[in-house]
Design goal:
35% strand; 4-stranded mixed beta sheet; Copper Amine Oxidase, Chain A, domain 1; alpha+beta; 5-stranded antiparallel beta sheet; globular
Length: 146
């Protein structure tokens, strides 16, 4: 059960990034420093591919985020589908569509999963909420922490 709390905390941190950065004006976002993700005040800087801010939504590289959430990520090239299997949550996404399935229930996304330079990015707000988390945004430090 302790591992599930950790996954929930990570998802919480991811959610805060999405909430705060989507509320910033576009011209400020372009000039601001990158968002930092922390878990229990420990910086999560292991991302090979940094978070993206596009059209008011924050995206994280799915495979790396899946590892952080202790989830198995599968890519099914036929249909461009992505499956994320977590301890208590299963998510199915499809590149280029606004529909996702979480534990068998259909949801409409506010941002579409995308492929950038061969890396699949997903909207972190949705992933975080799908894992049942909330996060704390520290605006001064541009940091998300649980």
């Amino acid at each position: 059960m302790n591992g599930f709390k950790s996954v929930k905390g990570i998802a919480l941190a991811i959610a805060i990034v999405a909430v705060v950065t989507t509320s910033l004006p576009q011209n400020i976002k372009a000039q601001s420093k990158p968002v930092t993700i922390t878990l229990n005040d420990v910086k999560q800087d292991h991302f090979k591919n940094p978070p993206l801010l596009q059209n008011g939504s924050v995206f994280l590289p799915l495979r790396e985020t899946g590892n952080l959430l202790k989830s198995k990520v599968s890519w099914i090239s036929e249909g461009k589908r992505i499956i994320v299997n977590g301890p208590k949550t299963t998510i199915e996404l499809k590149l280029g569509t606004k529909t996702a399935i979480v534990n068998g229930k259909s949801y409409t996304l506010t941002a579409i999963p995308m492929n950038k330079n061969g890396v699949v990015y997903v909207p972190i707000r949705f992933i975080s909420e799908a894992f049942g988390s909330k996060a704390v945004w520290k605006a001064k430090e541009k940091t998300v922490n649980r």
